[in-house]
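[Automated response] Your request has been received and processed.

Submitted sequence:
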Amino acid sequence: MNMLIRESVQHDGPSVCKLMKEQGSPDDQHRLEHRFKRYSNDSHHYIAVAEEQDELIGYVWAQDFGVHLRTGTKLCRLQELYVLPEHRAKGAGRQLFKGVLRWSHIRQATWLQWHASFSASAFYEKLGYEPVHQEGQGFPCYEIDFSTKQRPHSRHA
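Generated structure:
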């Protein structure tokens, strides 16, 4: 089967919001679609989708927080990456993640950071990343420092 990874467009809203609900969003469809429309029109947000046979099977959302006032560094954050369970381990998550890496480079980010659920940690470890620490309720935190040409906390550094 052919899988397509692409940036989202306005008409993806209902399908992306359905994926968000599948993932466990507590918000109602109308509010999700309103935020999707707003974020997809904002250059500080990156939303891409994985599509297979005209069906959205996953999405990713990242955010550019801009330049830090004191340090001058720029942080991008991977907010969500989700692939339907029946489509996992087929490359969609990996390709969506690569899209975030490309977008972060284009945005000239110094850092890319993200938290992962315990179940998603195995996915990031397969990509070669190790958590730098745990925050909040103990969720693993990951980061990439683009300023060093190496991937810190990665087995592929």
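Summary generated for your ticket: Strands lie at 3-7, 45-52, 55-67, 74-83, 111-115, 133-135, 139-145. The two ends are 33 Å apart (CA to CA).
If you did not submit this request, please reply to this message.
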